[in-house]
UniProtKB/TrEMBL annotation:
It holds the Pfam family Dak2. It comes from Streptomyces yaanensis. InterPro entries: DhaK_L_YcgS, DhaL_dom, DhaL_dom_sf, Dihydroxyacetone_Kinase. Residues 5-195 form the DhaL domain. PANTHER family: TRIOKINASE/FMN CYCLASE, TRIOKINASE_FMN CYCLASE. Its EC number is 2.7.1.121. This is Dihydroxyacetone kinase subunit DhaL. The gene is dhaL. The keyword 4Fe-4S does not apply. Keywords: Kinase, Transferase. GO terms for molecular function: phosphoenolpyruvate-glycerone phosphotransferase activity.
């Protein structure tokens, strides 16, 4: 069973990964964006860490909803509302249970990823975070490790794609040949689940 402490570890591990990889995320956002994805994510996840520390929400759902609200109010850009929606909707789907199963997390995360697709209008193959998140949710039933590998693979597979959503889509064919920064940060978020589980 996964309790609030597990979800706090997930967010803390995600914040650490974003910190470690901030420069790389910004570098990826340079040729096909505006070179701010690393700093956006860093600002957001630092705020998440501080708020979770201060408010210590008691349930998995409350942890993710609070984290999502923080991301919406601090990240900005396209990715802030999208990541915020992902965590808020996932948290809402978890309800107010004190502990949830891995299966419940999988179902909730699917609800969250669906909300991201509705909000941003992106489908798999559009070269966005969705390309890492959808395969991750599909593999999550197997294990956290499988989900992390699928997200990483999905992020790598964005390189040959032409962007159809977000800032990178303005480049048309020139977006081809670059890995999507948001898919890359999504892979970090999913990899942080493995760390939280201590696997
Ligand atoms: P901005 O593009 O506003 O500068 P960021 O640089 O923080 O925001 O985030 C860019 C990332 O957001 C992209 O790499 C992509 O993965 C994701 N993104 C942008 N638009 C969409 C969308 N409509 N749906 C899903 N993801 C999107
Ligand atoms: Mg950007």
């Amino acid at each position: 069973m996964l309790d609030a402490e597990f979800f706090r570890r997930w967010m803390t591990a995600a914040a650490a990964a974003v910190d470690r990889e901030a420069e790389r995320l910004t570098a990826l956002d340079s040729p096909i964006g505006d070179a701010d994805h690393g700093t956006n994510m860093q600002r957001g996840f630092r705020a998440v860490e501080v708020t979770l520390e201060k408010e210590a929400p008691a349930t998995p759902g409350a942890v993710l909803q609070l984290a999502g609200r923080q991301l919406i109010s601090t990240v900005g850009g396209a990715s802030g509302p999208l990541y915020g929606t992902l965590l808020r909707r996932t948290g809402k789907a978890l309800g107010d249970a004190a502990e949830v199963t891995e299966e419940q997390l999988t179902d909730a995360l699917r609800t969250g990823v669906d909300a991201v697709m509705t909000l941003g209008g992106a489908a798999p193959g559009d070269k966005t975070m969705v390309d890492a998140l959808v395969p991750a949710v599909d593999a999550l039933g197997a294990s956290f490790r499988a989900a992390s590998a699928a997200a990483e693979e999905g992020a790598l597979a964005t390189t040959p794609l032409q962007a159809r959503k977000g800032r990178a889509s303005y480049l048309g064919e020139r977006s081809i040949g670059h890995q999507d920064p948001g898919a890359t940060s999504s892979a970090l978020l999913i990899a942080a689940l493995v760390e939280a589980a201590g696997e």
